[in-house]
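Response to reviewer comment R2.3. The reviewers asked that we include at least one raw input/output pair. We reproduce the pair for 3-methyl-2-oxobutanoate hydroxymethyltransferase here without editing.
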Amino acid sequence: MSAYGDTRAITPPDIRSRKGGTPLVCLTAYTTPVARLVDPHCDVVLVGDSVGMVLHGLPSTLGVTLEMMITHGQAVRRGIKQALMVVDLPFGSYEESPEQAFRNAARVMAETGCTAVKLEGGEAMAETIGFLAARGVPVMAHVGLTPQAINTIGGYRVQGRGGDAERIRRDAIAVGEAGAFAVVLEKVPEALARRITKEVATPTIGIGASAACDGQILVVDDMLGLFGDFRPKFVKRYAELREAAAAAIASYAREVKERQFPAAEHVFADAPKPADTDATKSGEAA
Ligand code: KIV
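Raw output as returned:
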């Protein structure tokens, strides 16, 4: 059941209408099983270009390709029934011109079945956002810390603590006025997030930007404790699945070496017994 009382898929206008209301719940997903887990609880599921670091071991999002986003978008699509699905446009696929952005956004939408795309940048991307929105491509914007600009920013530190606060405020206003249906605010101080959320008619989705925003997003592997030892201040660990998985794998290795696994219940008899007729994963009867 969605926040709107039925099971129809959530749309960009639904998200826009939640401005100032019950906070929007958003998470990333990159695979079908994880999309199935997060979908019932989320308003927005983002196939983020963080997939490059989280699943592919890349040092930043800069090496993520359109093909990677499409492959993961297709997987996530199969796991979503009700949330709004957004796919990140990767670095280099939209900055050149509004036409380039439209061509690649349309391909992502057609090949993944997503409803919207996300792109990074403020005032500099306003024209592109307007171009896309006017041609049937709903856009989620992303300002503050924009990881695709890591080489110009010079690091992943908090943005908007000094003179750049006014620029980030102008960025958020510009993308809202250009037609973005939501704007991600990444790693900005609470006072700035509060001010922007108050001034901009578009819902703000915070990541490291305080509860003053209209919603929150986290990288799902971070909040589940699956992604390495990455422990930024803004991520709350709701589980420690990496530790649980490491302990399970160590148990398996020990039991194999000690011939405790497989045990009698995992072994097939010469002739099938009634309790022994489960289909295996490959569809083969016991
Ligand atoms: O790529 C991503 O996962 C994102 C979120 C962190 C907002 O852009």
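The chain has a mean pLDDT of 94. The pocket of 3-methyl-2-oxobutanoic acid is lined by residues 28, 46, 48-50, 88, 142, 184, 207, 217, 219 (CB under 6 Å). Further pairs are available on request from the corresponding author.
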